[in-house]
Specification:
The complex is a heterodimer.
Chain A: E1 3-5, E2 8-10, H1 15-28, H2 34-46, H3 48-54, H4 65-81, H5 100-106, H6 116-119, H7 131-134, H8 155-163, E3 180-188, E4 201-207, H9 217-231, E5 236-242, H10 250-258, H11 260-268, H12 270-280
Parallel strand pairs in A: 4-5
Antiparallel strand pairs in A: 1-2, 3-4
Chain B: H1 2-14, H2 18-34, H3 39-47, H4 50-66, H5 69-92, H6 100-116, H7 121-133, H8 140-151, H9 156-159, H10 162-177, H11 179-189, H12 194-203, H13 209-225, H14 230-241, H15 259-270, H16 277-288, H17 296-312, H18 316-319, H19 324-336, H20 341-359, H21 368-382, H22 392-403, H23 407-426, H24 431-454, H25 460-464, H26 468-475, H27 477-490, H28 496-513, H29 529-543, H30 545-548, H31 559-575, H32 580-593, H33 601-619, H34 638-656, H35 661-681, H36 703-711, H37 725-728, H38 730-733, H39 746-768, E1 769-772, E2 786-789, H40 791-799, H41 805-820, H42 824-829, H43 832-838, H44 857-867, H45 884-894, H46 906-916, H47 931-947, H48 956-973, H49 985-992, H50 997-1006, H51 1029-1038, H52 1042-1045, H53 1054-1066, H54 1071-1074, H55 1078-1093, H56 1106-1118, H57 1127-1138, H58 1152-1168, H59 1171-1188, H60 1194-1208
Antiparallel strand pairs in B: 1-2
The chains are: A mainly alpha, B mainly alpha.
């Protein structure tokens, strides 16, 4: 499999693998600009020296031809990739992202924690008391109300919902690309202020495109809206917008995202719906 | 005679079956043997096939002339069979019977076939010749002749079948491997080895896999055992190299040879002899340099072949050194620019093999010059690349591989590489560049460690190669590289710095493990004790960060770094004792220094992390056995002795400072964790440990003797300064003597460990209890001595109103673990059953040991800790009439019911365990009521009396308490299916249908206890559990209630109780148990839900619906079709179970568990039922689930989101 990393196609040296990948790209109309990549590949292989000179690559005196070829097409791939909106975005490690789910699982995965369940289980005490059984149903392992504490919806939960959406262009999530950030999510009134679960609340999400001229900002905004509409109760209003000065046309994009008619129309477009579904596939 | 042989020959030719043919051949062989192979007999035997030979020759001539192939081919078959008769006879013949001239004659006869009869004679001749070679009178000259004869086949060889060719290959193989024939061949052909050329010409077109394997073997033998001239060698090389790279077509039928076998066979040819070197290396390198035409698999094959040649060729000066430049120039790019991990690894192996070969063997080391030149060559091309972040890793791999190829190479140039890396670290290009360099440095440290471990004695080699340079270079690393980088990266690492910090931590651990290489063979630590301690304190400081730093300062603490830290410390602790002390000292100081009287949740969490980590680091691996300077052997138990004693000292210190019991519990959890980790380290464990304690004059266990036996030998001179139990118990440890030479069997360590663990449990039990006639300072006149919670703990509880539970729960768990590892006999001889009650206080035997309101509930927990892991056989003594078990249960039943007393249920569990593990004494009279019968009848009698009390209406709690107590006694008997239970079941049914509704409802709800799986009533805890007891319980408890449960209506309020009782029982059973009654059960569920969510639920709460919903979920999974008819009413009730009541409604909101179960069931419906059944509810349920997405409980929201997605798909 060919992976895209730090603006460079990391490929196996074997031309067969590359050809297979490109054929798949062409067949599936995937995002890696197959035609241009294929062209680059062909060029690199027919006239490698020319391209190497072009990009000031100086091979070692004894370096075999196969390495020159490889370097040539690596350079060309890099060049061809640069026609993406942002060919080289900053990518965060998944473990660095704020997440309630991952924190819980990551904290307990070392070998030193293998006996935590035996040693530090909260259930050890008071499981069989008479007092526990008089007024309510005797507790069980999975259905104990004490295990189900009341925790209102907060910003981190909203972040968990949308950070796992895939980017339409890169094989990374919106969280990894910092398109959505925890600090840019706000719930008003704050969940702790009002205990009434049925009160109207507004969730504001500011999206930061990786570059100011991102043509897919609307699609990303739409995906965030669809995801939150699917996951939040009816008393939550959504306000999805581009972060101020993060996009060259943020006014227009914001207008588009706010317009219910246009959002509804967009969702009826099969192609767009397909893109959105693909983006939401990675949501858990 | 002649006729007989002719007949046999005819029969042989005509026979179709192998067995018949073999019989005939055996007969002929016997005939020859009986005549002692006389000339006439042998002549008639040979002449018996003459008829086919003659006629066939004529026929063949004719057929050629007339063009009639058909006739000829028929004769060929017959002729082949006739010749086969001779070959088969030879096979059956005694090998010593033929005379030399006869062997010669026969060899000549069959040999002539290769020239005369290439169509019919070859197979039989090959077989016959093969037999003749094994004859006693076979002469080597005949072997030479045979090879010459066979070679006459020339082009016809290819036309033979694969099986025939295989016979011939095997013949060749046998002949050339025979030393006599080999020497005859050398003599005959001399250096020119002409026969090899003939063989090569004959066999060069072979394609059959099986034959190829033999052919490759023949070539290998020719190259290794003969000395062919250069021309012949080239011919041979051409023959086998033509096959390279070899592959095999996949075939439907198995041929018994795989492509890998062929590859290995061919590789053996390449690496057969160093005289091939001048051909092999250029050839393989040329193949490698073919560019993209070479696939990864072929490249791997080439690299492995290269490696095999390098490793097997002797005399590397002439066979390897001239080609090193060429090999290196081709291979370096495979690593430098290669991106396929496998080829890169294989290349590194080749480079390593060159280094190892140039080093020579231990007995015959080679000249140092080639190694030096080789390393210079690699360094010359690679060291510069270290400064280029793109190639750092690859260049580093290349350099490290050649340097680590042998100890000599390491000593020669290791320091040079370290210098180069250090220089680059000083001028880093990026954090990842530094990380790569550190990775490299760590790899070198690892290699150095392996070398020092392998050098056992000070070899003369070390004397020749001074090690000062090596020591200086590596010694300087800590201050020059690791310490500055640690300072730079350890505070708030982020992004790429995290990876760097991980490498630094790994490296620090490796530094501590480094040893000096001294020419006298003595090995001591490379770093001084101070440096080791400094490293230890750096690592410990990091481990203790959760306690020492605030949450804001630790935002960047990542699990990866913490795990690396843990692993590093673990490595260090196992390797070097000098780190142990600072680790424990710093941890102790940091923990004890804090004020733990009212710790925050975060502090407790941090302490928990640290305690778990220290237990893992110090006890999860057994230290290697070493001989100490005083001559005695080190003790593998040291680490556990040290950690347990330091934790117990901390326990005392914290208690004095009035720490919260939860904190004390965590310290005990540290000891418990150390035990668990140490158990794993001792794996594979003996199933159970046998301990036979000595008894004192009074008949009690000599615990001090047991303790001494466990820890003798742990207090060695080198361990002085470390913590030891002698600090805790100076009296017991005063006369400790080192044990004699210890056996190295881990079993012994484990037995000692178990003894010490047992003693630790006893120590802590004694620590938390006291023997007194009073409770909490209130004197009790005339009372027997009784066991109470010790004052310092009781005061903690009284003064600060802390609950002691967390501490006692830990103690209970630890006691259970330790007693579980003993077998029944040991448990009995240690008198653990009695100790369970007297809690190791022997003088309390006559005192109050039983459950009582005055005895703190926690002490019952301690009792349970020991009893729950005992084998029934170890508890027999408890059940004597008037024994402890009777006293305890009676006292439990007599305790005045006090519903406000929300005590822990430890006493209940003890009663259940006693009821379950009872074994009738073989000496007891059969008509006497057993222990269980008597306590059960007592409990039931109490219950019956209590329930008939008219005041119960005003005090329903009293009735509930009685039900609870009776069920506790029942609880122990159900898993063992005690025979006395069924006759008392009607009393329980009566309680369920009691006229005081609250008592009846409570009894119905509580019935689930009888079939619930309690940890203390599991087979792991050695409880008596019959496999089908749940079916039994269902049949006697729930089944009789069906008639009185249905129909549920207002006229008969007890009906609802019965329904509830059934559901509460089946909730704890699998579907298989109640599947037959599923229709009735669904009706009960609907009735219960309607009652609970209806306008008048009475005293029942909506939470009581959990049982009904849980059973409903189970039915949905197992038999959803049964639900179809009831779908409307089920949906109606599910909505009530999930939805919040509308404002102003008097209905109580359902509990979180209830909502969760309701949503889970809703979520499961779309996958089970077709759309037509669900569409009508779709709108309502979608709205409900959307609202549930805003549920206050996160878990419910998550379930609702999943359910919403499924229901959304319905539209």
């Amino acid at each position: 499999m060919i992976r895209y990393r730090n603006g460079l196609w990391q490929s196996a040296l074997s031309s067969k693998v590359i050809k297979n990948h490109l054929t798949t790209c062409i067949n599936t109309k995937s995002i890696c600009k197959p035609i241009t990549a294929l062209r680059a590949y062909t060029k690199a292989y027919t006239r490698p020296e020319r391209y190497l000179r072009l990009y000031s690559y100086r091979p070692a005196p004894n370096e075999p031809t196969r390495h020159r070829l490889h370097c040539a097409h690596t350079i060309l791939f890099r060049m061809e990739r640069s026609d993406l909106d942002n060919a080289n975005p900053t990518i965060l490690n998944v473990s660095q992202l704020p997440s309630r789910r991952q924190k819980q699982s990551a904290a307990r995965k070392g070998p030193e924690n293998r006996y935590d369940d035996v040693l530090f289980s909260k259930k050890q005490s008071g499981a069989y008391g008479f007092g526990n059984r008089v007024s309510s149903w005797p507790s069980s392992d999975e259905e104990d109300d004490a295990d189900l504490p009341e925790e209102p919806i907060d910003e981190l939960e909203i972040y968990d919902l949308i950070s796992s959406i895939s980017d339409p262009e890169h094989p990374h999530t919106l969280g990894q690309l910092s398109v959505v950030n925890l600090s840019d999510i706000h719930i008003t009134p704050s969940p702790s202020e009002n205990a009434d679960p049925e009160a109207l609340r507004t969730v504001t999400v500011d999206i930061t495109p990786t570059i100011t001229h991102c043509s897919l900002a609307t699609v990303i905004g739409l995906a965030v809206r669809v995801r939150l509409e699917q996951a939040l109760p009816p008393n939550y209003r959504l306000d999805i917008r581009m972060k101020k000065d993060s996009h060259a046309q943020d006014d227009q994009v914001n207008k588009q995202l706010k317009d219910k008619e246009r959002v509804a129309a967009a969702l009826e477009n099969d192609t767009l719906r397909g893109v959105l579904d693909k983006m939401l596939l990675t949501c858990v | 005679m002649a006729t007989k042989f002719r007949d046999w020959a005819l029969q042989y030719v005509l026979a179709d079956e192998d067995t018949a043919r073999n019989e005939i051949a055996t007969k002929a062989a016997k005939e020859i043997e009986s005549s002692q192979a006389s000339r006439p007999v042998l002549g008639s035997w040979a002449a018996s096939v003459g008829e086919w030979l003659v006629s066939s020759t004529d026929a063949a001539d004719e057929s050629v002339e007339d063009g009639e192939e058909t006739q000829g081919s028929g004769d060929i078959v017959a002729r082949a069979k006739a010749l086969d008769f001779l070959a088969a006879t030879l096979q059956a013949l005694d090998k010593s019977i033929l005379k030399p001239d006869q062997v010669k004659m026969l060899a000549a006869f069959f040999g002539s076939m290769f020239n005369n009869d290439t169509k019919a004679g070859i197979t039989a001749s090959a077989k016959a010749l093969r037999q003749l070679t094994t004859a006693k009178n076979f002469k080597p000259q005949l072997g030479v002749k045979m090879i010459q004869d066979v070679c006459q086949l020339k082009e016809d060889f290819r036309l033979q079948t694969a099986a025939t060719r295989l016979d011939l290959y095997e013949l060749f193989q046998y002949l050339i491997q025979d030393p006599a024939v080999a020497s005859e061949l050398q003599h005959e052909y001399g250096a020119s080895s002409g026969f090899m050329v003939d063989l090569v010409q004959l066999c060069s077109h072979e394609r059959d896999p099986k034959n190829l394997m033999v052919w490759f073997d023949i070539i290998t033998t020719l190259l290794t055992s003969y000395a062919p001239s250069d021309e012949v060698t080239e011919e041979l090389f051409k023959t086998f190299s033509n096959y390279f790279p070899i592959s095999m077509r996949t075939s439907a039928t198995s041929v018994g040879v795989t492509a890998d076998d062929l590859k290995l066979g061919l590789r053996r040819c390449f690496s057969a002899h160093q005289r091939l070197a001048r051909l092999t290396f250029p050839y393989l390198i040329q193949r490698l340099d073919q560019g993209d035409a070479v696939t990864v698999a072929v490249k791997l094959d080439i690299l492995k072949t290269l490696q095999a040649c390098i490793e097997r060729y002797e005399n590397p000066q002439s066979s390897l050194v001239p080609y090193i430049d060429k090999i290196w120039n081709s291979l370096k790019y495979e690593v430098r620019n290669g991106e396929v991990q496998e080829t890169s690894d294989a290349t590194l192996e080749v480079l390593r093999a060159i280094g190892t070969k140039l080093n020579g063997t231990a007995s015959e080391p080679l000249d140092v010059e080639p190694v030096k030149n080789y390393i210079d060559l690699v360094f010359g091309d690679s060291v510069e690349d270290l400064s280029n972040p793109t190639y750092t890793k690859q260049a580093g791999q290349l350099c490290a591989t050649v340097v680590a190829s042998s100890l000599r190479a390491f000593l020669l140039q290791g320091s040079r590489l370290v210098d180069a890396i250090t220089q680059n670290i000083r001028q880093p290009k990026s954090p990842s560049h530094t990380k790569d360099l550190m990775f490299l440095l760590n790899a070198l440290l690892k290699e150095r460690r392996t070398f020092t471990q392998s050098v056992r004695d000070g070899t003369s080699f070390l004397l020749e190669n001074p090690t000062e340079k090596d020591s200086t270079a590596f010694k300087a690393l800590f201050h020059q590289v690791y310490l500055p980088l640690w300072k730079q990266s350890s505070t708030n690492p982020f992004g790429e710095h995290i990876g760097l910090l991980k490498e630094v931590i790994k490296g620090l651990a490796l530094l501590v493990c480094q040893q000096n290489l001294a020419s006298d063979g003595a090995q001591d630590s490379l770093h001084s004790a101070e440096e080791c301690k400094e490293i230890a304190s750096l690592l410990t400081h990091k481990v203790l960060e959760p306690l020492t730093l605030s949450a804001n300062d630790r935002v960047s603490a990542t699990p990866e770094v913490e795990q690396e830290l843990t692993q590093a410390l673990r490595t260090v602790v196992v390797e070097s004792r000098c780190v142990y002390e600072p680790l424990l000292a710093n941890s102790k100081a940091a923990i004890v220094a804090r004020d733990w009287r009212a710790p925050s949740e975060r502090s407790v969490q941090s302490l928990q992390e640290i305690v778990a980590r220290i237990a893992y680091v110090t006890c999860s691996e057994l230290p290697a056995l070493k001989t100490l300077s005083n001559g005695s052997a080190s003790n593998q138990l040291d680490s556990f002795v040290c950690l347990s004693s330091v934790l117990l000292q901390m326990f005392d210190s914290l208690l004095v400072k009035k720490a919260h019991p939860e904190v004390l519990g965590l310290i005990v959890a540290g000891v418990h964790g150390a035990m668990l980790n140490f158990r794993d380290a001792c794996a594979p464990l003996p199933k159970e440990v046998i301990i036979n304690p000595t008894l004192t004059a009074q008949g009690s266990v000599d615990w001090d003797g047991l303790f001494k036996e466990a820890i003798s030998g742990t207090k060695q001179t080198e361990g002085a300064g470390l913590w030891h139990w002698s600090d805790l118990l100076p009296d017991q440890c005063s006369d400790l003597q080192a044990k004699g030479p210890r056996t190295e069997r881990e079993h012994d360590v484990f037995a000692d460990f178990t003894r010490l663990s047992l003693y630790t449990v006893r120590y802590l039990y004694l620590r938390v209890t006291k023997l007194t006639p009073s409770v909490a300072g209130q004197p009790e006149e005339g009372a027997h001595p009784a066991i109470r919670v010790a004052d310092d703990f009781w005061n903690l509880c009284e003064d600060a109103s802390f609950s002691l539970d967390p501490l006692f729960v830990q103690l209970q768990g630890m006691a259970s673990l330790v007693s579980r590892s003993l077998d029944a006999a040991s448990q009995k001889s240690l008198q653990l059953a009695v100790e369970g009650f007297r809690l190791f206080r022997e003088s309390a035997m006559n005192g109050e040991l039983v459950h009582s309101p005055k005895r703190a509930a926690q002490l019952d927990g301690l009792t349970l800790g020991i009893l729950e892991s005992l084998w029934p056989d170890a508890m027999v003594d408890l059940y004597k009439p008037g024994g402890l078990a009777f006293d305890f249960v009676n006292s439990y039943l007599e305790t005045a019911p006090d519903p406000k007393d929300a005590r822990e249920g430890h006493a209940d569990a003890v009663v259940s365990v006693l009821g379950n593990k009872y074994k009738q004494s073989p000496h007891g009279a059969s008509d006497e009521p057993t222990f269980y019968q008597s306590i059960l009848s007592n409990a039931v009698e109490g219950l019956e009396n209590g329930l008939s009390d008219p005041r119960l209406d005003q005090q329903p709690e009293t009735g509930m308490r009685l039900v609870y107590q009776a069920l506790t006694v029942f609880e122990g008997g159900f898993p063992r299916q005690d025979k006395s239970i069924p006759k008392y079941i009607p009393v329980l049914h009566k309680a369920i249908a009691h006229e005081v509704p609250r008592v009846g409802w409570y009894a119905a709800l509580s019935l689930e206890r009888l079939v619930r799986e309690h940890p203390y009533l599991s087979t792991d805890s050695h409880a008596i559990v019959r496999p089908l007891y749940k079916q039994w319980a269902y049949a006697i408890l729930a089944k009789p209630l069906y008639p009185s449960a249905l129909p549920v209506n207002q006229e008969y309020p007890q009906g609802i109780n019965n329904a509830m009782a059934i559901l509460s029982v089946i909730r704890r059973c699998s579907f298989a148990v109640y599947g037959d009654d599923v229709q009735d059960i669904i009706r009960l569920i609907v009735a219960i839900l309607q009652k609970l969510f209806g306008p008048d639920p009475g005293y029942a709460t909506p939470s009581d619906a959990i049982a009904a919903l849980a059973v409903l979920r189970e039915i949905l999974d197992e038999d959803y079709v049964a639900l179809r008819e009831h779908l409307p009413s089920i949906m109606e009730n599910l909505v009530k179970a999930v939805a919040r009541p509308v404002r102003g409604s008097s209905r109580k909101p359902p509990s979180a568990s209830c909502r969760k179960l309701g949503v889970q069931i809703l979520s499961g419906l779309p996958s089970k039922f077709e759309e037509r059944y669900l569409l009508r509810y779709s709108l309502q349920i979608n709205r409900l689930l959307a609202e549930s997405c805003g549920d206050p409980v996160r878990e419910v929201r998550r379930e609702a989101m999943a359910a919403r997605e499924r229901w959304a798909k319905l539209d």
